[in-house]
Structures are given as C-alpha cells and as structure tokens.
C-alpha cells in the first residue's frame, strides 16, 4: 500500500478463535490450508495460557536432515522452561519431561511435519501417551492442511482452522482498515480471497488510498499471480518440472468448476501429450483416488494456475481438449481458454456445459473474444445470468458492469437491467432494485413479454420488502400490461398477480380464491419445476395461512434448486420454510431452516436474504429468553435492513426484541418498542407484518397499565384474524379481548381462546394463553383452577423450549405455594439448570465439536459460544470438556435429559 493508506497489522484475532477452550484436551493437531492462521493460533494459545510455563518451538527445515535434531531442540526448550534437565535424548525422555511436573505446561510445536522422521515419531508417540493418561501438560502441534498428514501424527485429535465466512472476512477488513475501506471494494476483496485471511490482508495492502476510498477501481484481476505467489507460492518451491506440469494440468482441468475433482485418466493422458510419461508420481499436494484427483487446497490450485506462464497454460488446455470425448462442450471451452476458437463457436455450446460456473465461464470467454460491441454485451449478460443463478452475486455485478454499452439492443439492455435489479434485490438497497426492475420492464415490454412480467413482479417484491404497498400495486399493474402480449401470461401468473392485488386492496375473498389456485393447482405453478414458480406457490400458501402447503412448496423449491444447480434459490427456499415453521409455532424447525438458510445466503452473497434469516433466528430465540443471542440476531438483521431499506426484516427483528423483553417480564420496554410498530402512523411496521405483533403488544400494554392504547389495534387485528391467513390469529384475538375485558367476560373469552388453540395447534401460543388465564384466575383467588392452568402452561413452555416464559410460570406457581415441577431422575437436575441455548452448546461440545464448529452450527459468534460455555461449566460444576461429556452421556443414557 502507498501514501496514507491505513497500516495493516498481522493476522487478526478472528483466525485464532476459541483457543483457550481447546487447551483442556491434552493434545490437539492444528491444521488448515495456507494462509488460514495456524501459527497465529499457537500465538493466541500461548498468550491465553496463564496456568504455567509455555514452550514454543518452530521446526527448522534446515535441520530436518539431522536425525533427532527436532527432538533435542524441544527437550532443551523444556529444560529451560521447567528448570529440569531431561535425562537423555529419546522419545521416553520427552514423555518423562512432559509428565515430570504436576504443574500445568503448554508445549507448542509449529510446523511439526518439517521435523526429521525420528523426531516426528517421538513426538507422535508422546502425544498418544498424553491422550491416554491424565496429565497437566498440553501439547499443540501444527501441520499443513494442503498435504496428507504425517503418519506419525495419525489418530490424534484435530482442530481445523477453516477459511473465514463472508461476514467474518468483512469484519476483518473493517477492523484492519478502521472502517475506511469502501463497501464495494470490500465485497470485491472478500469475493477474491475466498475466506483466506492472509490473502485478504495481502489484497488490501495492495490498494492505494484512492482505491481504499472507492474512488478508483480495484486491481485486475483482484488476486493475480503476484499476490497469490506471495501468500502461497512457498508451498510450491523446489518442485521439479514434471510434478509442476501435473499440478498445472489438474488446476486447468478444474478451472471455473465448482467440482474441483477431475478425471485422473484425463489428467495423465493430457500430461502425456505434454511430454510427461506416466512414471511421474502425483505430488502430495494432490489427493487422488483410482478415478479422480484434486488439490488438497483450493488456494494452491489457484496459485499454480495463476503463476504458470501463459504459453504453458495454453498448451495444457489444448492437451486437455484433445483428450476429451468428441462433442464434449468442455473441449471447446478448453480450446477457447487457449485462444483457439471464436466467440460464436463457444457461445453455441455454452448452454450444454454441465454446471452454472462453466456456463458462466464460457459466455464470459465468448464475450472476451467478441469484437462486436452489442454481441459482447449480450454474452456478458448471459454470463451474468448464469453467475446470479449459481449464487455468485458479486461476479454477476462485475459481468453486468462489463456488459454496459449504449449500442446494445433494447432487449439486451432490458435483460441486463433485470439481472442487475434482481442482484441488488438480493444484496443491496431495495429502492435501487425496484428502479432497475421497472426500467427493465419498459425495455422488455415489446421484445420479451415474459421477461417483462418477471421484471415487474420482481419490482413488486422489492416494494414489498421496502414496505411500500403503493409500489407493489403499481408494479402489479405493470405485470398486467405485459400479460396480454405473452402467450403464457395467463393461468397461475395472472392468478398470482390478481390475488396479490386483491390482498393489498383488502378484497380478501377474491384474494383467497386466486391465491388458492396458485398454491394448490397441480398443473400450474406449484409443479412447473422452476424454483421461482414453486416459490410463488409457497408465497401464496403463506398468504393464505396454508402452512402445510407452504412447507410442501418450500421443500419442492429446495429440491428443484439443487437439481437445477440454481444456488441462488436455496437461501430463499429456506427462508420460506423457516417462516412457515415459525408461523406454525415450530420454533426449533424454523431455527434449523434459518441457520441453514443463513449459511447459504452468505455463500451466495445475499445479504438481504441473510437479514431475513437473522430476523427469523431472533424470533425463534426470543421464546427462550436468551438475551444475548436475540440481541445479536436483531443487530445483524437491523444492520442490513436499515442500510438497504428492508422494512419487512426490520419489523420482524423489532418484534423479536420486544417479545424477548416480554418473556423476561419487562412489559413496559416491550410496549414501548412495539407501540410504534402496531399503532397507526409513520413508524408503523411493515404493512403485511405489523398485525402479527399485535398480541404481544396488547399483552405488554395491559401488563404495563396502558390498556387504552391497545384497544384500537385489536379491532384492526380482528380484520386480519377474519381473513384466515394466520391459524393462530383467531385464538390470539380472543386472548387479546380477554385481557381488555371486564371480569365478568374475561374467563369465558380465555376458555374460548383455548378451544381455538386446540384446532390451530402450536404449544407456545396455547401456553401463553394458559399462563395469562392462570394469572387472571390466581388474582381472583380461584387457586385450584389457577394451579391446573399454570401447570399446563409450564408443560407447554418446557416442551417448546420457552425458558423465559417457563420461569414466569414457575413464579406464578410459587406464588400459589405449589411446586413448579416434580422430581427429576438422577443426573437431570444439572442439565435442567441450563438454558436451551446452553443445552444445545453443551451437547455439541460433548460430541467433540470445537467452539468454532458450534458457532457455525448455531450461526452465532465464537465469543457467544465461549460465554455460554463458561456459564455451562459454572452451572454444572465441571472443569473440563471431558467432565462435561461424561455428565451429558450419563444423562442421555438414563433418559434424564430435559
């Protein structure tokens, strides 16, 4: 970096997450691909270890030829740290030195694979002995993840330092640049680095101050040969030409394909064309089976390809093309990479390639080979479409930028505007997306009515996400204008448009008829096979309150997206599934879908979809009363929602925060948060969602002594309940009326609400009604009835993991002088003291998961996992993961888990 660019420190703490918590195990082998921070992991571990001496040894490659040299170095370091001179220089001496003192001791050996065989064998034997015995010594070894593990360390427990997720990578860049890095530039670097921290830092160091600010475009390519060589080239040093050619052949065969395993026979035949006979052994940088071969490290594959001379890359591609079967479109693509075909030839076969990434690469290469500007724009647009469907949002935007030309036909510019608007709808300000999509509708109306309809409906989706009902109606009118010019514009498409319009205009009976056809017509949208059509069926089912139908359609959309390699549809299919389960009161299933959807959204670069998943996770967590977890998901959802104008996600997140307050017995705070969302005015929440929060608001307002403010919204809620789109709404309406009713009517209303809950299902909502009824009965000294009602509420809350409400219920039972729960089997009392989130973490840790693995599974930060794990240890009175695993195993075997 030059000029006044912010100074960039070394590897950031993100790469060494959850180090101290790993030290309760006697031995860990730390591995990961180049640049992911194995050495930094050891440094963090050494700084975190305060219980005793720390011994750090880094293997010296120059001394690896001396038998036992590494072992003697380690023994000397141990002697200096402990003040005990080891007896002899054997493996037994090492084990004795590690066990000689009862004081805690941490030994860190970096790059243990570089030691001589004798030293590796002694170290591996000592590690296995430590695993089998009780000792205060702790041993951490690092070995590379881009080669097969040394056999001397086989069977030892492994910690893998994985690449960063996109949010983690963005956070790292913001941290090291002090937030000065332009958002678009940050996205470019995150995309190019593919989660490797060292590559992220190397890329940002190359930027000029103007590039950091976003005033100048980034270097092209973002991660070229020079920077890749700086980060990972050392792993290739010393390789002779034969193995290098084999590596280059594998790298070229896997270029731009998500399946990085390539046919072994193809590689060997192509290498033979290059003058390399089959006697050249495969380098250990490759993982091979009888049929396939691939790199252990994707970073090394990129480095091998990027640093090879251009003429050698062309020769390899021609050799691969010559060995593929006649008519295989991949052969033409390889010849195109070698510069041996024309763009029109490649364009003709691009659609026949087996994956979205290869099709994208073929259209992009055909565009590069084009001399005609309009044809180049058309091919770049086609490439962008494949990138977007394949879940490569940032790549799609780069290709669309390359496609910009004023000389392209209106239909090409219209399709580019449609793709740009769709991309921004997934990951950007939704008002910008809406404008681009409406522009696309205008450009496409006379040339491609079907695409124009798609653009107009997507503009409606953008207005919906922004909470703009007038914008939705305007976009739906544009849809209607295109249907008459489109032979396929009737049927389910027309029903969906007209049903949605009727819903927005509060003509509920017409809306129900139209939308029901879309959701249930076996020959229409729900069975067309296109994930987008199936997702419309899921949306229609959700609008109707047909939650079973929404689940079926969501599952079909998910299966179709996977079958058709439409990665972009996977996060949205998960979003619909999560909403359906959430509305049905199945919070655990909603959480599962949202966690999977969040990971898929991050992989696909869909931050807007990720914001919705965070909102669902916040709502699911809010019933558990996990304040920190709810706050984390709410902050993540609102952070994106406020930047991108996502009123829908913001409303859900605010509702989740308020529901968590209500569960913790803070009705005033909940009412203050929910009041602006549900009462008329400029701050009212999303037009399709605010009524979902009304029952929470009424409960909070009445508990806070603000009943008058709740009466008006109940009558509006009654209209929503009458539509039938929410199976819980009729019972919730009666519960709200009971809260506001005089004493002579409340009891009957509560009982009617409970009768409706029997039909609607859902443990959580029924238990909330039982709790409120039980409170009402207790305050009127009808103690026996109150005890029955509160006991039933407690069972319901415990069944669905609503710990905060369960604690409220226990408080009410204690006020009655009743026991909140009966005796538990031996071993359960400890686990019963954990919150649902702590219990999930405890079980995963007991199964052997690391804190990072638990964090990824639960979509929380490792700091959150560390916090909860400390609480678990304190609650259960255990001091190590081993003790925790034994306690959990004992509870599971006896059936004594809560």
Automatic annotation (TrEMBL):
UniProt keyword annotations, A-Z: DNA-binding
Signal peptide as annotated in the record: none
Coiled-coil region list: none
HTH luxR-type domain sequence ranges: 827-892
SUPFAM superfamilies according to UniProt: C-terminal effector domain of the bipartite response regulators, P-loop containing nucleoside triphosphate hydrolases
A matching Pfam family: GerE
Keyword Secreted in annotation: no
UniProt superkingdom: Bacteria
Alphabetical list of SMART domains matching this protein: HTH_LUXR
Protein name: LuxR C-terminal-related transcriptional regulator
Native source organism of the sequence: Streptomyces galilaeus
């Amino acid at each position: 970096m030059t000029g006044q660019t912010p100074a960039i420190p070394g590897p950031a703490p993100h790469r060494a997450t959850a180090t101290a918590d790993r030290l309760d195990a006697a031995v860990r082998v730390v591995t990961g691909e180049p640049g992911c921070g194995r050495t930094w992991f050891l440094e963090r571990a050494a700084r975190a270890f305060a219980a005793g001496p720390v011994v750090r040894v880094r293997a010296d490659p120059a001394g690896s030829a001396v038998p036992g040299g590494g072992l003697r170095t380690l023994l000397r370091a141990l002697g200096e740290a402990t003040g005990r001179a080891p007896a002899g220089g054997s493996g037994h001496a090492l084990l004795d030195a590690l066990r000689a003192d009862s004081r805690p001791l941490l030994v860190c050996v970096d790059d243990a694979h570089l030691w001589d065989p004798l030293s590796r064998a002694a170290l591996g034997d000592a590690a296995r002995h430590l695993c089998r015995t009780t000792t205060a010594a702790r041993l951490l070894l690092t070995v590379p993840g881009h080669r097969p593990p040394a056999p001397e360390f086989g069977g030892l427990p492994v910690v893998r330092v994985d690449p960063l997720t996109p949010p983690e990578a963005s956070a790292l860049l913001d941290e090291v640049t002090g937030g000065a890095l332009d958002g678009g530039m940050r996205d470019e670097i995150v995309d190019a680095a593919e989660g490797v921290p060292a590559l992220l830092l190397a890329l940002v160091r190359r930027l000029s101050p103007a590039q950091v600010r976003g005033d100048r475009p980034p270097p092209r390519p973002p991660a070229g040969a020079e920077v890749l060589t700086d980060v990972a080239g050392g792993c290739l040093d010393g390789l002779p030409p034969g193995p290098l050619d084999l590596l280059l052949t594998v790298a070229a065969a896997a270029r731009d394909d998500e399946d990085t395993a390539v046919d072994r026979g193809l590689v060997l035949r192509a290498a033979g064309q290059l003058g390399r006979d089959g006697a050249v052994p495969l380098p250990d940088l490759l993982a091979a089976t009888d049929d396939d071969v691939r790199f252990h490290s994707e970073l090394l594959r990129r480095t091998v390809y990027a640093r090879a001379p251009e003429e050698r890359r062309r020769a390899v591609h021609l050799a691969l093309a010559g060995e593929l079967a006649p008519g295989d479109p991949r052969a033409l693509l390889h010849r195109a990479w070698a510069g041996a075909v024309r763009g029109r030839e490649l364009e003709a076969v691009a659609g026949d390639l087996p994956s979205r990434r290869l099709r994208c690469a073929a259209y992009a290469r055909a565009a590069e080979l084009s001399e005609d500007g309009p044809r180049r724009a058309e091919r770049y647009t086609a490439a962008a479409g494949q990138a977007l469907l394949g879940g490569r949002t940032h790549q799609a935007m780069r290709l669309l930028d390359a496609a910009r030309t004023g000389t392209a036909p209106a239909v090409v510019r219209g399709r580019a505007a449609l793709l740009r608007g769709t991309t921004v709808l997934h990951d950007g300000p939704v008002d910008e997306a809406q404008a681009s999509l409406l522009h696309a509708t205008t450009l496409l109306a006379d040339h491609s009515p079907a695409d124009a309809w798609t653009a107009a409906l997507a503009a409606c989706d953008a207005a919906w996400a922004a909470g703009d009902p007038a914008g939705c109606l305007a976009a739906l009118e544009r849809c209607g204008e295109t249907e008459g010019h489109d032979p396929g514009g009737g049927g389910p498409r027309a029903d969906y448009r007209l049903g949605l319009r009727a819903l927005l205009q509060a003509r509920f009976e017409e809306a129900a008829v139209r939308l029901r056809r879309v959701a249930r017509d076996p020959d229409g949208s729900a069975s067309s096979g296109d994930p987008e059509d199936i997702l419309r069926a899921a949306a229609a089912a959700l609008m109707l309150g047909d939650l079973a139908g929404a689940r079926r359609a969501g599952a079909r959309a998910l299966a179709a997206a996977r079958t058709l390699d439409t990665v972009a549809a996977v996060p949205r299919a998960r979003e619909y599934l999560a909403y359906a389960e959430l509305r049905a009161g199945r919070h655990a299933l909603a959480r599962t879908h949202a966690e999977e959807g969040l990971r898929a959204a991050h992989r696909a670069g869909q931050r807007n979809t990720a914001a919705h998943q965070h909102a669902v996770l916040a709502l699911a967590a809010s019933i558990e009363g996990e304040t920190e977890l709810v706050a984390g998901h709410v902050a993540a959802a609102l952070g994106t929602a406020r930047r991108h104008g996502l009123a829908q996600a913001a409303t859900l997140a605010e509702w989740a925060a308020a529901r968590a307050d209500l569960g913790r017995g803070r009705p005033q705070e909940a009412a203050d948060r929910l009041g602006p969302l549900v009462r008329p005015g400029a701050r009212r929440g999303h037009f399709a969602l605010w009524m979902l929060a009304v029952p929470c608001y009424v409960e909070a307002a009445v508990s806070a002594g603000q009943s008058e403010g709740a009466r008006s919204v109940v009558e509006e809620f009654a209209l929503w309940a009458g539509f039938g789109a929410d199976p819980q709404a009729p019972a919730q309406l009666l519960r709200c009326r009971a809260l506001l009713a005089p004493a002579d009517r409340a009891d009957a209303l509560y009982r009617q609400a409970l009768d409706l809950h029997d039909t609607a299902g859902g443990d959580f909502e029924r238990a909330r009604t039982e709790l409120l009824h039980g409170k009402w009965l207790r305050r009127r000294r009808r103690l026996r009835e109150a005890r029955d009602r509160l006991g039933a509420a407690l069972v319901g809350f415990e069944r669905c993991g609503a710990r905060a409400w369960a604690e409220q219920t226990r408080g009410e039972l204690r006020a009655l002088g009743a026991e909140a729960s009966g005796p538990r089997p031996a071993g359960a009392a400890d686990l019963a003291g954990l919150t649902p989130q702590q219990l999930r973490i405890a079980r995963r840790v007991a199964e052997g998961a690391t804190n990072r693995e638990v964090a990824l599974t639960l979509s929380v930060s490792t700091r959150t996992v560390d916090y909860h794990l400390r609480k678990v240890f304190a609650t259960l009175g255990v001091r190590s993961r081993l003790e925790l695993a034994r306690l959990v195993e004992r509870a599971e075997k006896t059936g004594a888990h809560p």
